[in-house]
Design the sequence.
């Protein structure tokens, strides 16, 4: 996919910040671009990374393809419609942009903050900056390895010093992710020389909130290993105890602006290309559950006066949004938030962990709390307790701890991930097989990984695992079945 306007926004921010960092001596140096300094302070890097990670790592192509894979949406035009019909997914250029953003921009910037702010760095003692960077690095590496499997991690981000990094096995990448989060927690707990404050577009420099995010992410990444690590559930619960305490702690980017280059990327996609409509599967699921979120989140098709979901793999082109429903403006507008992890997700993780350990009462409590928190987040204005209680008492939902199943938990988690976290829903489907209708649909199941980018194959072919063509449908990544490629 071509790059969208928000990437020009990233470039513009970089140029402005870079220009401000140049002094007269620098301008006098021959062969030096004053708008592209080689050395940038942690205070100038922080705004870029806290905007780039939620926007350009998990907010664009990965999310758009995953959304059709998990049937949050259906492709009704262009590349997403092709992908929904399982056409072109083996194309090695599919995610060139995301790979480039991760490895040429985001990870080098995060590593620069960590290096400069740590002991021995030229801005040593900026521990809050360092801790934030380590949380974001763990999040970014998890995105990369969950999309592709083995990826550069231990040798990533070294620039010209190592243009052909080795690919670490996914198990090793996950070890590094947990280590990064442990280090981040320790760093965030230290007295820092400075605080990023408004430079941090996510939590405003609040170290305690970043620590909660780190613990919550640890819980997510432990539960990701449920098929390959017998301690995953208990480890997830141990981490969750110190994670989000309420929705006020949510790990969310909420700084988009209503301008041509600062809008939410999904809003830009809707206006620039309009490749998605809400999936028939999503509409029918909420109808079956009599879920009040349906009318709040899914728009009526104007000419019909009804909500109409698009069948996945539809042959109808609906770029003009006259046949099928889009999301409502409550869900998607220029300044919509971009959640990266939420309190309701953490509750569903805890519910699954308790269920796997046989603690059904605790699992049921966490499951209901997850639904309650998701409804409060997804309904506007916030629903009354009566509305929530009526939904929870719906006989289509389990009415006792003994009736709760893993499918119940993942189905509600899938609803909570709508509209902006389909990549997490895709991870859950690969890990658990739920929602089961993704496998049972008339079209073939989605791929179980994304193809390695052509840019990396061209530059580093000797290191790229030999996973090509149809293998993206047949070769699971490690945490699905325990089999490693490298």
Sequence:
């Amino acid at each position: 996919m071509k790059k969208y306007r928000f990437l020009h926004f990233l470039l513009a921010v970089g140029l402005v910040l870079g220009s401000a960092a140049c002094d007269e001596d620098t301008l006098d140096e021959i062969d030096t671009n004053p708008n592209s300094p080689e050395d940038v302070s942690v205070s100038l890097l922080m705004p870029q990374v806290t905007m780039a990670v939620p926007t350009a790592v998990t907010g664009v192509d990965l999310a758009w393809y995953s959304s059709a894979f998990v049937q949050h949406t259906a492709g009704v035009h262009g590349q997403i419609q092709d992908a929904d019909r399982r056409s072109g997914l083996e194309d090695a250029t599919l995610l060139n942009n995301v790979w480039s953003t991760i490895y040429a921009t985001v990870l080098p910037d995060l590593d620069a903050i960590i290096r400069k702010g740590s002991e021995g760095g030229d801005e040593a003692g900026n521990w809050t900056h360092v801790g934030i960077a380590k949380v974001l690095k763990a999040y970014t590496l998890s995105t990369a390895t969950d999309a592709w499997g083995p990826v550069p991690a231990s040798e990533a981000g070294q620039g010209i010093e190592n243009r052909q990094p080795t690919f670490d096995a996914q198990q090793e990448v996950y070890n590094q992710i947990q280590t990064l989060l442990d280090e981040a927690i320790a760093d965030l707990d230290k007295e820092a020389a400075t605080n990023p404050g408004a430079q941090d577009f996510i939590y405003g420099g609040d170290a305690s909130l970043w620590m909660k995010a780190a613990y919550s992410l640890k819980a997510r990444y432990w539960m990701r290993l449920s098929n390959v690590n017998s301690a995953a559930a208990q480890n997830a619960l141990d981490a969750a105890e110190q994670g989000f305490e309420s929705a006020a702690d949510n790990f969310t980017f909420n700084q988009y602006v209503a301008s041509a280059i600062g809008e939410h990327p999904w809003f830009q996609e809707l206006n620039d290309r309009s490749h998605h409509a809400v999936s028939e599967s999503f509409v029918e699921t909420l109808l079956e559950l009599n879920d009040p979120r349906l009318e709040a989140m899914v728009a009526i098709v104007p000419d019909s006066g009804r909500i109409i979901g698009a069948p996945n793999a539809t042959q109808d082109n609906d770029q003009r949004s006259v046949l099928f429903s889009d999301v409502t403006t409550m869900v998607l507008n220029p300044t919509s938030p971009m959640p990266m992890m939420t309190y309701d997700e953490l509750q569903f993780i805890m519910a699954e962990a308790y269920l796997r350990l046989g603690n059904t009462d605790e699992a049921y409590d966490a499951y209901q709390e997850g639904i309650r928190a998701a409804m409060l987040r997804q309904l506007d204005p916030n629903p009354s307790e009566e509305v929530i209680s009526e939904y929870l008492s719906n006989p289509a939902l389990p009415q006792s701890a003994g009736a709760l199943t893993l499918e119940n938990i993942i189905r509600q988690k899938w609803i909570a991930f709508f509209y902006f976290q389909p990549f997490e829903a895709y991870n859950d489907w690969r890990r658990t097989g739920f929602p089961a209708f993704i496998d049972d649909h008339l079209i073939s199941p989605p791929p179980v990984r994304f193809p390695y980018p052509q840019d990396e194959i061209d530059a580093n072919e000797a290191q790229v695992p030999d996973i090509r063509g149809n293998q993206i449908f047949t070769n699971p990544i490690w945490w699905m079945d325990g089999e490693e490629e490298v």
Summary: Strands lie at 73-75, 251-253, 276-278, 338-341.
